[in-house]
């Protein structure tokens, strides 16, 4: 297999191995680590058709994680995609009307983050061993709702690691919050930040790139890594399910060999849709990557104008995992469409930090051709949930509904009849109140927890096992902190 090395988008790191990249999480210059090239596998799609999820995961991931031995990577995959998923298929594709839903919420925390965070702890542990590191790895995570619980689940009681999750105290659903604050695990810490997700993510990134603090940590026997999609070890496992979805539809003869499909991705931090872009670069026949936003439509505006402008009102919406104005992984796309120009990326990221706004060049904008941006207002999201449930009997969560609504607008505008896959990122059970009141306002009188039963009665879907007893689970993690005290909280937790 051809070796693939990793570079920082901002130029300070060149040619490190995949295990080094996974351990690092983010480069010291604040840049993100990217593969130097994309392995091309289009000619092998027919061969891949016969693979189950684990075989496919090995096929794709082994082309990126080239310093992992076959036995090491296979062990990671086996550990990750087993009994914790409630579907044999791991990521089933459901046809609803003429559209396909790629359901990524069958893992232990009911969101797509499980697809990568089930395997990241295994990859990290293997990488640490390969690099002969004998420090405790502290996983710092910022979450707008879903990553946090998936990371806690993945890293709980993993030897040689501890995990600290920061979430916006008032910016997640009740069920998301309880999933995190009631989480058990000796090495886990959960902290509510008195700010929004951008504050939370910026705070974490500042800690990561504080070199003096890293030195202190090093002396005390610790090192940081990330469970967010800034870590390339989060992103690569996500590429797999785009192939899986395509091959699934191909096997069902819904499309012909080499026929292109569209993917519609509810987007916040840009990791999920970037994984689809990586799949396209690897030769997966993709027509459009439809980037769906909620009222925090910074990406929609960017796709249309080439101007990224985070200086705007931040909205707390019913699709909280997408309430983000600084979309981390866009930096990786900018790097690709600039012709891997790290000087340009440094300039744009400095503008983003200092002024909150940057413009890409017209050449870069042309390369956004693969993408289509759209957004759904709150009422549109609610109407979509109600309409699709009433007309097709399919119950979606709020994030998936944003994607579906944007797809309807795309269809209306383009009349594109390419087969389309909606990426369904979370179970409706994580957002019971928003989903149920979309169907009928009468549900507004019940709490999120009580609505789990109502949802089950209405939809005929069983309450997922991992959250059955969530209402009565005691809250263990009660710490909150202002945005500018996050580093102090980390120091307290680590006792340094
Ligand atoms: N939507 C995310 C925000 C963090 O994104 P990530 O993909 O970088 O982990 C969440 O639910 O926490």
Automatic annotation (TrEMBL):
One of its GO terms (molecular function) is threonine synthase activity. Pfam families: PALP, Thr_synth_N. Its cofactor is pyridoxal 5'-phosphate. GO terms for biological process: threonine biosynthetic process. Keywords: Amino-acid biosynthesis, Lyase, Pyridoxal phosphate, Threonine biosynthesis. GO terms for cellular component: cytoplasm. It comes from the Bacteria. Signal peptide: none annotated. Residues 102-425 form the Tryptophan synthase beta chain-like PALP domain. InterPro entries: Ser/Thr_deHydtase_PyrdxlP-BS (IPR000634), Thr_synth_N (IPR029144), Thr_synth_N_sf (IPR037158), Thr_synthase-like (IPR004450), TrpB-like_PALP (IPR001926), TrpB-like_PALP_sf (IPR036052). It is an enzyme of class 4 (lyase). The keyword Lyase applies. The modification N6-(pyridoxal phosphate)lysine is found at residue 113. It catalyses: O-phospho-L-homoserine + H2O = L-threonine + phosphate. Its EC number is 4.2.3.1. Residues 6-81 form the Threonine synthase N-terminal domain. Pathway: Amino-acid biosynthesis; L-threonine biosynthesis; L-threonine from L-aspartate: step 5/5. PANTHER family: THREONINE SYNTHASE-LIKE 1 (PTHR43515). Catalyzes the gamma-elimination of phosphate from L-phosphohomoserine and the beta-addition of water to produce L-threonine. Belongs to the threonine synthase family. NCBIfam families: thrC (TIGR00260). This is Threonine synthase. It comes from Oxobacter pfennigii. The gene is thrC.
């Amino acid at each position: 297999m051809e070796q693939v090395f990793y570079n920082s988008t901002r130029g300070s790191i060149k040619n490190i191995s995949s295990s080094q990249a996974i351990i690092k999480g983010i480069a010291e210059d604040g840049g993100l680590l990217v593969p130097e090239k994309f392995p091309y596998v289009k000619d092998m799609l027919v061969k891949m058709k016969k693979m189950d999820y684990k075989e496919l995961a090995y096929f794709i991931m082994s082309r990126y994680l080239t310093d992992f031995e076959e036995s090491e990577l296979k062990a990671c995959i086996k550990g990750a995609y087993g009994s914790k998923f409630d579907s044999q298929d791991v990521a089933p594709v459901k046809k609803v009307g003429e559209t396909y839903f790629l359901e990524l919420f069958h893992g232990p925390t009911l969101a797509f983050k499980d697809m990568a965070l089930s395997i990241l702890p295994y990859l990290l542990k293997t990488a640490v061993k390969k690099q002969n590191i004998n420090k405790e790895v502290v996983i710092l995570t910022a979450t707008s709702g879903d990553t946090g619980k998936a990371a806690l689940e993945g890293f709980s009681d993993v030897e040689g690691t501890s995990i600290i999750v920061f979430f916006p105290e008032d910016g997640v659903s009740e069920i998301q919050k309880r999933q995190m604050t009631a989480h058990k695990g000796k090495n886990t810490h959960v902290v509510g930040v008195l700010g929004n997700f951008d504050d939370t993510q910026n705070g974490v990134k500042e800690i990561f790139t504080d070199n003096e603090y890293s030195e202190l940590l090093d002396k005390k026997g610790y090192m940081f890594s990330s469970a967010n999609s800034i870590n390339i070890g989060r992103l690569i496992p996500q590429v797999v399910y785009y192939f899986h979805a395509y091959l699934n539809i191909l096997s069902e003869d819904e499309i012909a060999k080499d026929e292109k499909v569209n993917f519609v991705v509810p987007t916040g931090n840009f990791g999920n849709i970037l994984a689809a872009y990586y799949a396209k670069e690897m030769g997966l026949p993709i027509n459009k990557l439809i980037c769906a936003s909620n009222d925090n439509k910074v990406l929609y505006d960017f796709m249309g104008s080439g101007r990224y402008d985070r200086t705007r009102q931040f909205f707390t919406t019913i699709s909280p995992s997408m309430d983000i104005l600084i979309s981390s992984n866009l930096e990786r796309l900018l790097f690709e469409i600039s012709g891997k120009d790290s000087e340009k990326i440094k300039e744009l990221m400095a503008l983003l930090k200092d002024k909150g706004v940057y413009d890409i060049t017209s050449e870069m904008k042309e390369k956004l051709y693969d993408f289509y941006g759209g957004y759904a207002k709150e009422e549109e999201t609610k109407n979509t949930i109600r309409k699709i449930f009433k007309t097709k009997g399919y119950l979606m969560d709020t994030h998936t509904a944003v994607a579906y609504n944007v797809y309807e607008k795309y269809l209306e505008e383009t009349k594109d009849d390419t087969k389309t896959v909606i990426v369904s990122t979370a179970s409706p059970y994580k957002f019971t109140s928003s989903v149920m009141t979309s169907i009928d306002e009468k549900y507004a009188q019940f709490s999120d927890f009580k609505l789990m039963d109502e949802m089950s009665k209405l939809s005929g879907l069983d309450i997922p096992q991992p959250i059955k007893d969530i209402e009565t689970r005691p809250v263990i993690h009660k710490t909150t902190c202002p945005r500018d005290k996050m580093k102090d909280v980390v120091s307290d937790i680590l006792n340094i």
